[in-house]
Amino acid sequence: MLSAALGLALGLFIGSWNAAPGLLDSSLLGIAGGSVVGFAYTMAVFPSGYPIPFPTSTWGGLSVLLTALQAVGFASNSFTIWEDEILLFFLGTFAFVSLTASLRQKAPEDRALGSFQSSFFMVLTRIASLSRLCREEQMPYCRSTYYSSATSSTSASWQLFIPYTLSMVLPSLIKGYLQGTCSYAGSAILWIGVVLRMGLLASAIYWTLDAADNNDWLNINKDTLLFAKTSLAQLTLGIAFVAGTTYYVWATPCISIELPPQENGTVDPGEAATTKPKSMNVLGYGNMHGSRYLLLITNWVLAIILLQKPMGGGSIGILTLQILALLEIIDSNDLSRSAIGPVTLGMLGNFHFFKTGHQATLSSIQWESAFIALKTIRYPWSPFLVVLNTFGAQIITAVAAPLVVLWKQPPRKKGLLGDVAMAVATYILYFAVINLATT
């Protein structure tokens, strides 16, 4: 900070003395130059306090290797156009390594939990790979399954069963993960058991009405059908963002209190009313931060599933389950401070970017998503809907980055906020390396 301030002062002085570069440009140059000089001076004077962050474990090495290989792959055009298949291989590699590591755990509970979740993660990855939108360079070795045909931009009729299946299965599976830590209590019961399920059902009804509109299944006026669709979409987005955010801010912890059973014998009612229990069990206390933060992620999941076509909504549902499986793998292998969690989240976001019907081409942008909740283009809402449709998977994994550290961690753990910052920084660093390789 001191070096940046000195650089700012120097830049202002130069800018006032010489008007050629401009005062603003001189100030920015002074701040940047002062920061670089200050950092170099700190590294030179205190080298032992800032060691070079080389990986010191197998998981750290795997994190660096997966990131570096993906970045280097952009140097080849063949690797670039097959990025989705490369990410599939990388995620499968992570699942295999985590399965091997879980089988070597000493505790039977950790061994069983880690092995099952690693296998589940691998199966989900293979299922998600069935959703595919091919780019021109991949022909004839690729077959698109995202739309009803290679030349169509509408979903196949059979794909409508996907959002209805999600509305029944996804909340129940999320509930199962929370029940593993006795955290399906308090605010989680209403939001996940009722609101999330109803929101996913509303999303399924929306895409049914959209298919009926495209295929003329119903003898209903087009304007009436359009009003019903947009109203239902606006209601769902309102539940996700307005009601969901408010509910998360004011939500009580997902814990419950269990009192010990009464001892044998007769107790006077007046005495029982004034006698405090000697002990009580707080169920869900060990995952209090993680279970509550999960409510925020479900808000984004609900909104982004609505903004994806049925096949893309299924991919987002699989992504949600993969994130939960990843959290259990991290917990069973004690990897909350490792870089592998945020790096895997980054790969999941990029992988499901392709599985939601997108490619690294402008022609794959689904512009029609701007009209899911609107009848006409309205700024800034229409671009906002397109961004959520395009980068929905990356947004969900970005929101989930702190959960890598918060999941199943003691509420009073020292340095928890610093660990969260480190996980978020690692996630950002992964994308920074990828972006550097593509510029």
Provide key terms for this protein.
439 residues; 2 strands; mainly alpha; two-stranded antiparallel ribbon
Helix-strand layout with pairing:
Layout: H1 2-17, H2 23-45, H3 58-73, H4 77-81, H5 83-103, H6 108-128, H7 161-179, H8 187-215, H9 222-250, E1 256-258, H10 269-274, E2 281-283, H11 288-306, H12 310-332, H13 340-355, H14 381-390, H15 392-400, H16 403-406, H17 416-437
Antiparallel strand pairs: 1-2
Structure description:
With 439 residues, the protein is mainly alpha-helical. The protein has 17 helices and 2 strands. It has helices at residues 2-17, 23-45, 58-73, 77-81, 83-103, 108-128, 161-179, 187-215, 222-250, 269-274, 288-306, 310-332, 340-355, 381-390, 392-400, 403-406, 416-437; strands spanning 256-258, 281-283. Helix 3 packs antiparallel against helix 5 (83-103) and helix 11 (288-306) packs antiparallel against helix 15 (392-400). The radius of gyration is 26 Å and the shape is globular. The model has no long low-confidence stretch (mean pLDDT 84).
